[in-house]
Amino acid sequence: MAKMNLKEYVLIFLVVFGVYISNAYDDFVTDSDNKTYRNLATSGDIVPNTFLSYVLINHQVLYFDKIKGTLKEFQSIKDRTPYFLIKTGDHYYSVYPPLTGLMAIPFFAIPLLFKFIPALNLWDYVLKILVIGRVSASFYAALSSILVYASLTKLSERKNLAALFTFFYAFGTGTWSIASRSLWQHTSSEFFISLLILILLYSKDRPKLIPWMGFISSLAILARPTNIIFIAPLALFVFFKERKYALPFCLSFLPAALFTLIYNHFAFGSALSEGYSARNDVKWSTPLLTGVTGFLISPSRSFLFVSPPLVLSYLALYKIFRTKNFIENHNLLFKFLSAGFLFSLLVFSKWYDWSGANGFGYRMLVDYLPFLIFITFLLLKNIGKRGLTALIIFMLYSVFIQYNAVFNLRSRCSERQNWNINCLITPKTKRFLEANKSYSFLLKDWTKPF
User: Fold this and answer.
1) Domain boundaries of the chain, sorted by first residue
2) Does 450 have pLDDT greater than 60?
């Protein structure tokens, strides 16, 4: 295990955070000039958590009645209730879990309490809320990068290789184009899963950390309920292998569980309801083979085309199940986690919108990137010079794809582009291909899902 160095963590954070927010001002100016929000708000899904701090600090509530008119600007049909809100009784609540928005409160506190943003009566004030949302999302994504680096150096002395993988995690994956760009559920979910991985590694020698594993797991589920699929096998591991700590592990879920039940009661009319079911949006209509094929080989949604080094995570999963001690002292634990990820992949493959709507790349799998990066690193921790050269080339390609997504595509990719390369190329390249009939076929669908 490499020794911890505070300066390294500070440097990593500053570099990653600095890159993430580097175009926030330019995006603000562009949206201000054009009277739009397209550069700062990557999706309407991020709106409730971004404006939650505003209603909580200014009005001491968790509903959006007073600013519903403003929030309608984030969808094309202005005379309807925004799709990301749901009416319960006399109030309009977010369809999505509020934890991500609550975590952003420290960033909104000073601007709102000191009236730097006195109201939402000017469009620039609305955009400033989005900028603060970008800053807070970037902060947690950068923290997640530090946690990933700490996990990698926990099991390897090759700090340069760990730094390389951290660079890839921060800039060559959806951590940049999704988690850092706006206050998605993915933002907080990815942060908690990266923290969970680190605690898991230390829990082998310090079993008293197991209740903290449960608490962090509960927050990951609170951030994005589908994480329960990934976390459930971890709970089984604790029950079977760490029975002494099974009860504290379960009890550590209580705070998040109680908050969820109370919030659901007020927001959705029932403690056992949640946003998706409340708006009747739970549909598992995609043929399983279609979704799985999309995640594996779609030109705009798969690791293969968007972040090629992550393809090796599938080989790492195979190794975890087939090799007796692939992860020294942690192999059984990671078998359970691997099962959780694979089951999550199958569940998302059945979701009616498996591709993540207009989100860029493999948005639906962004939450699990800390786990996938970790097992891929372990697969390659003894990589030689030639293999390392090839790896760096593919990582740089991945960074270019993310750069294009952030600076040119505004972190968006239409689901109409699932089976072509339009979301991978720059606007200049696309114009060149469109102007040359000999190459224009490259912009058409390469293949169709089975």
Assistant:
1) 6-16+137-407, 23-133
2) no
pLDDT of residue 157: 86
Distance between CA atoms of residues 169 and 144, nearest Å: 9
The answer to whether residue 434 scores a pLDDT higher than 60 is yes
To the nearest whole number, what is the mean pLDDT of the chain? 93
The 10s digit of each residue's pLDDT in 109-149 is 999 999 999 999 999 999 999 999 999 999 999 999 999 99
Residue 50 banded pLDDT, cuts 50, 70, 90: very high
Interatomic CA distance for residues 425 and 278, integer angstroms: 39
Q: What is the pTM of this model?
A: 0.96
For residue 399, CA distances in Å to 74, 127, 316, 424 come to 29, 27, 22, 11
- Extract the tokens encoding 399: 């960074």
pLDDT of residue 301: 96
